[in-house]
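From the thread on structure requests for the teaching lab: each student submitted one protein with a one-line request. Submission from student K.M.:

"Model Glycerate kinase from Shewanella saliphila, tokens only."
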Amino acid sequence: MKIVIAPDSFKESLSALEVANAIEQGFKQVFPNIEYCKVPMADGGEGTVQAMVDATGGQIVECQVTGPLGEPVEAFYGILGQTDANSRRTAVIEMAAASGLHLVSTTQRNPLLTTSYGVGELIADALNNGIKHIILGLGGSATNDAGAGMIQALGAKLTDVNGRNIALGGAALATLHNIDLELLHPCISECKIEVACDVDNPLCGPRGASAIFGPQKGATHLMVEQLDQALAHFANVINRQDSPYIKLGCEHQAGAGAAGGMGFGVMALLAATLKPGVDIVTETVQLAQHCQDADLVITGEGRLDGQTVFGKTPMGVLNVAKRYNVPVIGIAGCLGDGADAILEQGMKAIFPIIPSLQPLEQVLIEAQTNLTHTAQNIAAVWSLSLNRI
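Reply posted by the TA:
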């Protein structure tokens, strides 16, 4: 008998691997001798690097890069412990590690100034380490520069009408006149870049990067208008370039507005492909191979609710397990409104782990214990069903 345990992290409490360990511990109280396969999961957002490193036996690489406001920050990325289907070494980078909103205090948030330069430095470090496949997770960014800082860090020259390098930040895009990619990092053309993106916003307009995501990064109404115009100008300059490195017309594609327009930048300038984050993760950690001969799959995340079915980890795991008719049970820190939607998609049961009303701080502290107890109870019930067969 084989059980696959493939959960996401419980945010602010347990990593995906710690969640998997706790579930395994609970199940072993009832089934001590069966096969357990732990596959830490993520959906492309926070925790993706750690989950994928844990799932593949990889390593974390730490390095100092340029933060959102130009100051040095300590960042990281992961190198996976297995090569991809084409035998390429793979790195996983979370944009937020270098350019995240959490790196800027609420009083300093200003997307006119913030830059994605540090993301480019992480990519360059990975390339220098021989990486040929990069998975980039978008989300949680403090920037609205459409990846201009990133491409500058990789060697591109972005100049104004006088031939001078433009400044960093979203507002400076309005001064752009020319882009020269000839000095781009020499290894970038040999690297496959996949981007985990779960939004479909275009670059500009009422659903664009500035209008939808700018305010949470500190943008006022006037700043949103200024940033939107700057992004439109950036796209126009790119589209009139005569360069084999550039892909034209990306500003209208779904996901172009993700992470302050980073989706546009990576598509137009790095030939990247955008895919749902959980699809990239499930493929990379080879979840299908683990599930095809399983008897049961356990998944979960900190909160199961009506949004879970829209690309969150439990839904991604469920979709994979359904290919092989393997039943799936979900475990969550708590259940929110609309959580039953995932039952309608085929999950067999969902369980919250909180045994009683408690302050949030206590809930987070006791998450591992509560998770193990819940898993043990699920295993006990499942054993009853097996005994009836």
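TA comment: The radius of gyration is 22 Å. The chain has a mean pLDDT of 94.
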